[in-house]
Amino acid sequence: MDLPNVSPGRPSRPWFCPMLQSTLQEILGVEEEIREKLNAEREKASQWLEDARRQIQAEHTAEMGRLPGGSSQGEAAAREAARKSAAEIVGQAQDAARAIEQLDDEALRSLVARHIACIAPGSSRAG
Hints:
The protein is mainly alpha-helical. It has one domain. Helices cover 75% and strands 0% of the residues. The protein has three helices and no strands. The chain has helices at 17-66, 72-101, 105-119. Helix 1 (17-66) runs antiparallel to helix 2. The chain is rod-shaped, with a radius of gyration of 28 Å. 1% of the residues are buried.
């Protein structure tokens, strides 16, 4: 196999260097895209949690307004039902937020590796 001519005055580089540089740039681009998506998902989870808290507060206030003032037993039951409903919604929101916060560098590396497999030269899925 003949190697391409090397320009005088320039250090010789392997013939595949531009391909590696291009692939590295693609990898870094995918990694940045993944980080941006992760940050966007974290922001969505935070917003969802805040919306859930507002909804719970509104439901609680509405339920409290519907309670007759003289029925402490009915009031207690309604408060307990509202607390259970609120706890369930908050729990779901916290679970979603925790799942997003648990993504670490290793999880990101795994995502990047899967994306690299799609764009790597010689990959059957490369476009």
